[in-house]
Write a structure and sequence with these properties.
The protein contains 11 helices and 15 strands. By secondary structure, the chain is of the alpha+beta class. It folds into 3 domains: 2-117, no CATH class; 140-202, Dna Ligase, domain 1 (2-Layer Sandwich); 206-355, 2-Layer Sandwich (D-amino Acid Aminotransferase, Chain A, domain 1). Helix 5 packs across helix 9.
Length: 356
């Protein structure tokens, strides 16, 4: 039997880096709303952790195939395996305190290695390797460990996006320009001082966002599918499109589909080189289509998420989707019809409109 826990505070807990991180109100609200979401991928007889003080009434995705247990009663279950949204020091401390045996949880050394791999430094290294394989893609990024290297890059590229090593939902991402005021300059210095470095890249005219989803184990990295997602103007995740994978691929401009197939072939190899056997679990690589002078181009690595992602959830929903209608899965910003609602026609598909 596997014990499942949805911990959406994972990215913020990685940034904090301690077992004692206190989850934000937004993360606690999301966990209370979607705690039963592991029902989508759990096996019959598995157990899902219900957070303290949360009701089972109206819990999305909760089915009779799985059981649930209150977090305060975890000491009463004896799982063979534990799966969480993402591994970090906070969730390990939380499970240990609730009575889960340490031998089912990552060691301190494994946690630190996974945290380092989860840094945006991995995205920089992966993008460089993909661009060497597929120069017809677009995108450059740089890992900087000094203020001087940051501002030299800004002087060259004029408008630059800076990204803290660990952050979530668009937080920790901000614009830099040569005439930047004291505030962003101080922010760059603080991030480098506290987190050891910062990622910077030229500003790209983003057209649409998508991701490739994978699973890594000791045998390598396996491709699982593609996910198309929506973001708000500030970059925060808004939701995923749900449809058959063939229909999702049709959203891409025709001249980019063969290139995307090449990216799908290259990425597992390059990810395996960088991860080795230090990470086992789900992961996703965020990408985007950007408007360049010569037309729409494919940026093959905006960010790597070493955890289960909403893209994986979208793939599970696609597999269980009997209808041919397009749907949107919007867990953070539910609409009037709930967190999964249909589009009345393909013409309403915002990704299709953006990509074409």
């Amino acid at each position: 039997m596997t014990l499942h826990l949805f911990n959406p505070s994972h990215d913020d807990a990685l940034a904090d880096g301690t077992p004692y991180y206190c989850s934000s109100e937004a993360a606690r609200t999301l966990e209370a709303r979607l705690w039963a979401m592991p029902s989508l991928w759990a096996s019959r007889g598995d157990v899902i952790v219900r957070p303290k003080g949360v009701s089972t009434d109206g819990a999305p995705f909760l089915t009779s195939d799985v059981e649930w247990v209150d977090e305060c009663d975890l000491h009463k279950v004896n799982p063979d395996k534990v799966e969480v949204w993402g591994w970090d020091a906070q969730v390990v401390f939380r499970l240990q305190r609730a009575g889960i045996s340490p031998h089912l949880l990552p060691s301190a050394e494994s946690l630190e290695r996974m945290r380092q791999l989860s840094s945006r430094r991995l995205s920089v290294e992966l993008l460089q390797r993909i661009r060497q394989d597929l120069p017809q893609t677009i995108g450059i990024s740089l890992w900087c460990e000094s203020d001087e290297s940051v501002w030299q890059f800004v002087e060259t590229h004029r408008r630059v996006v800076a990204k803290a090593p660990w952050s979530t939902s668009g937080r920790g991402i901000f614009l830099l320009e040569p005439n930047a005021s004291h505030s962003p300059r101080g922010r760059v210095s603080r991030i480098i001082r506290r987190q050891g470095g910062i990622e910077i890249e030229p500003y790209y005219d983003r057209v649409a966002d998508f991701a490739l989803e994978f699973y890594a184990d000791t045998s390598g990295v396996q491709y699982q599918g593609i996910s198309l997602f929506l973001t708000h103007s500030g970059g925060a995740y808004a939701g995923n499109l749900i449809a058959h994978p063939d229909r999702l691929m049709q959203c891409f401009p025709e001249h980019l589909r063969s290139l995307l197939d090449d990216v799908i072939c290259v990425l597992p190899l390059r990810l395996s080189e960088l991860l080795g056997t230090d990470y086992v679990g789900h992961l996703g690589v965020d990408m985007m289509l950007v408007q360049a002078e010569e037309g729409i181009k494919l940026h093959p690595c905006v960010e790597v998420n070493l955890r289960r992602t909403m893209g994986h959830v979208a793939l599970d929903l696609c597999r269980n989707c009997a209808t041919k209608e397009w749907q949107i899965f919007s867990p953070n910003f539910p609409g009037p019809e709930g967190i999964l609602y249909p589009l009345r026609s393909e013409e309403e598909n915002p990704w299709l409109i953006a990509a074409k």
